[in-house]
Please model this.
Amino acid sequence: MTARCPVSHVATEPSNAGLRVVRRSALRTGLAIFGDPFRALETLPAHGDVIVTSLFGQPTVLLAHPTPVAEMLREGRGTWIKDRLSRRTADVFGRGLLLSEGEEWRRQRRLLNPGFANARFDAYAHTMRARTAAAMAKWPVHGTLDAAAEMARLTLDVAVRTLFGADIADRDAHRVAEAFAAVSDFVASPIGMLPIDVPRWLPLPVVRRHRRAIAELDAVVGALIRARRGSNAPGEDLLAMLLAARDETGGLSDAEVRDQAVTFLLAGHETTALGLTFALFELGRRPDLKARLFAETDATPADAGHEAFPFATAVFEESLRLYPPAFALSRENVHDVVLAGVPMAKGTLVVAPPWTLHRDPRWFADPMVFRPERWCAPEPEAPPLGAYLPFGLGPRKCIGSRFAMLEAVLLLTGIARSHDWTSLDEALPPLQPAITCRPKGPVRLAVRARQPLT
Ligand code: HEM
Model:
């Protein structure tokens, strides 16, 4: 049976899994994605559940339904690998957990899991509270600031200190921050967005800056690793865990430790910073929600665990729903496969966009409304598997999700304890589609200290 799709005016056909499958020309897809990518992602379900098309000459499938998304991401037999868009960042992340595959990935995940086990979280929480207090002491008693820049600085500071402990000098922490800014700019630049390996010797300023940034990261991180290997104080941070990780094949080499450290630094701070920025923006236009956050924060001791802050947790979950920082996950199949009843030739680029799924009224009531209450008792919404995936799903789900939730709640409540804020703009600046969705301009807040700072 074939039906007319009202939006794209092409035939849609139900797959044998009951999904609406639609074929679209490369041109239409390209125009939509390069015109306004976030709008294009949001309107995908109006076209179909599975959109078969082509991008940059590569067969491409866009998934706008949770069933095939969950099926693909949960598959553990090695059919799906990270695609070439994800692999563009291989010169930064090296063969760290984010981009490694197969047996190498399995070994790394096994070695790294203990660093994200419960036992370590008290030490991480202590660092997170201390760094938030230090940042708050620098916020003006009364003034304006850019939430995006502030959150990027604070989460990078937390990432650097939880990874390297007290070892890192302020000057080196600053070098790491500068290098990351350059890498992120490169990835978000038109050159960095190309789905091909751009020769790194090209004499373009953005490429040169990117190359210098990687050399800088290698220098700082390499020196820290060598210093720690030579010291007899193992420390309690993530670096200590990386250096101590062992299995029957031995431990991680210096190059492997470098790749994991850089992966944790980048994967771990920018995403959390964005989630917090969007949360601050939304709360800054909704006094009712902010009042509820203040009430929860004021009634709870500062050193309480993050479970003591259910509303702050719901605020962050809602921020990750409406603005998922990892807005599009993607894979490539290593052999021909049938997904959701749709045959896909080897080498197809398959995109599973949380941005689309999180804004679909089929899975979330009033999806465009920022409503943290949807995550709270007594009746939290329960989207189907694959419809809410800010941290991904299946074996490659974010290893740092619990770390991120802990950090977000402690930072948000630490800020709320110290300052009140109002959003100065009605809307967010346009977002830049890179690995994450970064605002292209400042997210301006008017801030005021809630109590005299001591
Ligand atoms: C709000 C914050 C965060 C968000 C939204 C986020 C999102 C994600 C997503 C969606 C994935 C899966 C990617 C895919 O399937 O292609 C992922 C993987 C990963 N994340 Fe996170 N992440 C966050 C925080 C963190 C933190 C704090 C760390 C480390 C300290 C971290 C480290 C990683 C690593 C290493 C992977 C790769 C895991 C693997 O492939 O086995 N992330 N993250």
Remarks:
- The CA atoms of residues 138 and 344 lie 54 Å apart.
- Residues 1-11 have pLDDT under 50 and may be disordered.
- The domain at 3-140+147-266+325-386 is CATH 1.10.630.10 (Cytochrome p450).
